[in-house]
Amino acid sequence: MSQPAFDPSGFLSEFYISFWIPTAVLTAALVIKLPTIIRLWRDPLLRSVGGLLLLACAVFVFCTPSTIHRVNRLTGVPNISAPWCYSLITAMSAAGLLLIVTWRNGLSDRSAATRRAVRRVVSVYAGVIVALWVLFLLADAPVERVRDLDTYYAGTPFMREEILLYLFAHAAACLIASRLIWNWAHSEGLDAWLRWGLRLLGAGYGLNLVFSGAKLTAVGARWTGHDLDWLSTDLAPPVASVTAILVATGFILPHAGQYLHDRWLVRRAHRELRPLYRLMRTASGDSVPFMLRATPELRLTRRETFVRDVLLPLARYLDADLDRRAYDAALALGHPPERARALASAVAILDAIDSKRRTPDPAEPATGTDPTSLLRDIAPISRALRRPEEIEAVRAAAGARVSPGTPVGAGPDPRPE
């Protein structure tokens, strides 16, 4: 019993990706970038990014079969969407090249070579768009085709040249852009988020070559009497969708990734200060005003300010001799110098709090310890307070005498601030 022939078009139809999915992703990328583009409109790089994203959105809106049919019906011209969609794709290709030229040469580069490259890209692709419309006016394409126009009119005079022109212009732009992006992504000194963004952009532009190759192969098959229309109608559209998602993500990732990373660092710094903050709350007995809608940055600043404000008057109770002995003891216990410094400072602060409790108004400071390092290194000291057993070991080795009840370690914040 013979096996049924493999149907690639049916197989690919199961993996159909709606054009509205990449449109939504591209729109999200444009919305994220738009405030910066408007604020820094004179920046040619941002203008290029905005133009590329806007044109990419337009491509996926106007190249959907339903929109193609609607435009044809509204204008009363069968297949008028063809030169319009081809023009959008060509303009998007040009915008991608302009972006790479501007981005690669840097914002400060206003050389004659850069200006010539920009003018060359604009003039060549503007000429291609004009030629697309002239060829359409010369062609005879009376039958509306919303999905398979490229292969249906592959042998029609002037339409044939129009189809080849837009495909070759698109392929050339993607080939140049992907090569430049991949070279740049492997250069030194790039931020990790930017590097990954470039890799996604490079993958997107590289995959665009599959789109152009599938279309050209299907068109060429028509010339030789073969039917490979599924390459154009079933393979190329999902490839274009995946390409758009990769490109949009490549633009989003450096911005969103750096933003989320910065937010994470702020929240981590705020959380790391919790032990020292609690200790200073106990030592001062003061209340801190609570702001219901305070931003993470403001909460971190308020916490740092409060800790330093309480530490500063504690300087008169700090014992420099105990600080040195605690540092030597921490080193002897096997802690690295940075960790030993934090543990010694924690022991000195706990001793100062105990001394303040026993003698609220000393006639003279303990031994004149400089609080500069304490005010600077509040984060390592706070991390050291999370390990009370290590502090107790350093205390014992340094011979520190601390009254019972002196708080050590971390617990939950009594209040959010």
From TrEMBL:
Matches recorded under InterPro entries: DUF6545, MAB_1171c-like
Protein species of origin: Streptomyces camelliae
Keywords on record: Membrane, Transmembrane, Transmembrane helix
Ranges where the record places region Disordered: 355-377, 395-417
Residues covered by the DUF6545 domain: 263-381
Transmembrane portions of the chain: 15-32, 44-68, 80-101, 122-143, 163-182, 203-223, 235-253
Domain of life the protein comes from: Bacteria
Signal sequence annotation: none
Name this protein carries in UniProt: DUF6545 domain-containing protein
